[in-house]
Amino acid sequence: MTPDGDLVDEDVATIEDEVVSLISSKKSFRRSKRVLATKIYNKHRIAFYSGCTYRVRDKKLVPTFNTCGYKIRKSRTRARRIEWEHIVPAHRFGKDLRCWNRGGRGYCRTSNQKFAEMEADMHNLVPAIGEINGDRSNFPYGEVPNEPRAYGKDVDMEVSFKLDRAEAPDNRLGDIARVYLYMNSKYEMSLGEEELKRLISWNNSDAVDEWEIEKNSLVKIHQGDDNPFVSDYRELEKKSFKSIAIKSDSSSSESSSFDEVKGDVEKDFEWLLKFIPAKYQPVVIIILAILVMFYRRRKK
Question: Are 135 and 37 in contact (CB under 8 A)?
């Protein structure tokens, strides 16, 4: 786990066996990775930032450098594999949750339902060369001066470790914008004034393309929802942005809050649960979680 609570090898793209995948819950990051690899990107094996094609080798997705002129910057291990990149980083929508401070991404996944759904959302996941995914980390997108082309002169992806910023190719900016707007609308993820202005500009300057539309349709089949900023694409104005927002489920925040408290209870009262028979533990956890929530609300 990295110092900011993320998991280093969680994003590696592989072709898991069907029987293994079925163990995962209906909406999980593990399931999403398999669906993306075998049902969505199986006929469009192109890395998001670099434009490199990739192939399957020993159930792993491996980039072909000569198809895009990719040059390894530093990490040979991560450069030689495809990883699933969160366009909106997991750190962005997880860092303010108590579960993140207690155990990072892995703990949030098991204790916070809303986080687990956001982490697994396939609209927010794209294949990327692992080295770029690692370098971009949780940096926001923006302009990087001078364009050093650290990944080869033909790979128009820049990461500035001094500015903590990543600059994606122009033909990916609209894709990025529409994912951010979708995550904002569906999960009530906050956006700053300048950030929203920039996203709207990117959406308007880089219209949807055929693959973006096709991916959106495939995700709808396998996940059950689409990104309306893709399916109903149009140029946006800031003043009209709220009128096209997706209605959020008000119960989801309460549900995720209770799940988070349950996770806290399991961790804080682990010593006590050891003395309780396994079949009674779920009931005890629920009772303790209700008491903890009641106590916290009384304190407010």
Answer: no
User: What CA–CA distance (Å, rounded) separates 93 from 247?
Assistant: 18
Give the pair of three-digit tokens for residue 93.
């929508």
State the Cα–Cα distance between residues 166 and 30, nearest whole angstrom.
Answer: 26
C-alpha distances (whole Å) from 125 to each of 29, 50, 117, 151, 279 are: 10, 15, 12, 21, 38
What are 135's two structure tokens?
């370098």
| Cβ-contact 5, 94 below 8 angstroms | yes
% of the chain with per-residue pLDDT over 90: 60
Determine the Cα–Cα distance for residues 35 and 55; give it in Å rounded to an integer: 16
* Residue range 171-222, pLDDT digits in tens: 999 999 999 999 999 998 989 889 999 999 999 999 999 999 999 999 999 9
User: What SS3 class is residue 89?
Assistant: coil
32 beta partners? none
How far is Cα 282 from Cα 288, in angstroms, rounded to an integer? 10
Write the single-letter amino acid at 45.
R
